[in-house]
Amino acid sequence: MSRPMADSHRRFLQTMMSNGIISASQAEALHKHCCEAHGAHYVADRLDDFINVINAHLQPLFMYIRKGMSEENGLEYYALVNMTETDITRMATDYADNELELFRKTMDLIVDSESGSASSTDILNCADSLRTKKLKKKETEQVLNKFVQDKWLNEKDGEYTLSVRCVLEMEQYMRTIYQDLIKVCHVCHNIALQSQMCENPTCGIKMHLPCVAKYFRARSDPHCPSCNDFWPHEIPEMQRFQSQSSQNLPSSSKENTAPAPSRRSRRS
Amino acid sequence: MSQRKKAVSASQNKTQRRSQLLLNESDEDATFSQITSSQVQRARENFTSDQIDRKVAEVVQFILIKDQKKIPIRRADIGKHVIKDYKHIYTDIINRVCRTFEQVFGLKLVETDPKNHIYILINKLEPIHGEPVSMRPENPKKGLLFVILSVIFMKGGVIKENLVWNTLKKLRVDPGEKHDEFGDVKKVVTDEFVRQKYLEYVKIPHTEPVEYEFRWGLRAEKEVSKLKILEFVGELFEQDPQSWTQQFREASTAGTSSQRTS
Questions:
Q1: What's the CA gap between B181 and B72, in Å, rounded?
Q2: Per the record, which residues fall in region Disordered (chain B) (predicted)?
């Protein structure tokens, strides 16, 4: 039988619910705060145990707090995800049908690409040929902004990528829809979009950029861990991914974990 | 049982004057009160515990999504969109849903309107300070709400709207202008806070031109501690909260449900 939940767990869960996703360092701080606020016994490195208690109670509700790494900055995040979604219905209450269709098409572009990103130009072209109802340029830009605000996409220099929240929430959906089109990272075994690929046509393994940095750290002569061919890509610096606050790094795209501003329901 | 039927038929008379859509919802809802105990027994036997567990989970999800938008949840909606065939064991399911909200989320499912069967989710956990600031999205608005609730409470529970606007103006929050933080202040106060059931904004009858008054809403009654409000006011005026004897008496006897310990 699982350990019972206390107010410290409930407060943590409520904060997860209003934020959707938080960084690991925010989660550590929140864990401490929740325990102290309710006089619960706090042990510093037992965040995962604490979350496991919550997850045991969320499981019958088909929800759980999932930990995952961001492809942008290599940092760990915790997201509250819904296990019943076999579609992007998670977003259905917040977006119109044609906006959802645009999101699906954007995801198609991203999965299809080598870089794990889609340019705004390509997305605008999709908007012009939607089956549900076309979106004009201005409308498309507004919808894309909303996707970024709601933490489904990240944007940098006109290129859009799937946010860590999106990947954590929709992994099941993506694996079902894209099947073999989606590769996993050779190092961490999670879906790999922003990644490098082995050039050997019989090999073709993928690795996340942060995983590449970690794996080939301080190696002057990198070789593919699977087929041993020379690894021809530029190895990113570890420092780029190690900073506590990704805001300091102009080169890497930021993960948006600011709380979402309250929106008026579009159905009201 | 018969009292419920009376209430149902009374509300059905009223709905004849409303739109067709609402009439259908009321009909839909009326079937809830016509369930017999033998139907309940048969229904319990019809469904496996796994199926019922699943239904409980679906209702919880449904309510959480509606609550995210602070839309009050209608029993008719739950029936139509989620419960469907499981209607006869609605009570069993909703009881488990309530227990789940309390035990897992620290939330309470409250029926605000026993006649029309509308629910809201309120927080059983008391609001606390010192939470990592980045994670409190609604903070500025809560401050605004707190000020308004304080004024209403200190003035005996109901005030004319002018008093609210004048108080806010003194704090440089002008309902006539677009505010940097709150935007359309009047809309936030009279629409958003009212929809969320923190405030009630009611027409004063026989006023020309129409005037409105503010009261505490049901969610505020359940979630906000009057004692905390009095302490806040005490700090503002550097006075002992007990110096306002009437309000202090009211605050002491109020004792909100959120003050329960785990």
A1: 26
A2: 1-29
- Asked if domains A89-172 and A182-235 share a fold, the reply is no
Mutate to test the interface with A, among B81, B129, B135, B139 (most CBs of A within 10 A): B135
Q: Which helix (H) or strand (E) holds A34?
A: helix A24-37
Contact A60 B136 (CB under 8 A): no
Q: Are A165 and A21 in contact (CB under 8 A)?
A: yes
* ipTM of the complex model: 0.79
CATH architecture, range A182-235: 2-Layer Sandwich (3.30)
Average pLDDT over residues B82-107: 89
**CATH number assigned to the domain covering A7-84:** 3.90.1150.220
Is CATH 1.10.10.10 what the domain over A89-172 is classified as, yes or no?
yes
The domain ranges of chain A are 7-84, 89-172, 182-235
Closest CA to B196 of A13, A7, A260, A265: A265
Residue A159 neighbours by CB under 8 Å, 6+ apart: A115, A117, A118, A119, A120
Cβ <8 Å between A26 and B132: yes
User: What pLDDT digit, counting tens, does each position of B139-169 carry?
Assistant: 667 788 888 999 999 999 999 999 999 999 8
The pTM score is 0.73
User: Which residue in B102, B134, B142 has the most chain A C-beta atoms within 10 A of its own C-beta, making it the best mutation to test that interface?
Assistant: B134
In whole angstroms, what is the distance from residue A118 CA to residue B20 CA?
A: 47
Asked if A60's CB is within 8 angstroms of B53's CB, the reply is yes
Percent of chain A with pLDDT over 70: 88
Q: What is the mean pLDDT of residues B34-49?
A: 79
Nearest to A13 among B100, B105, B262 (CB): B105
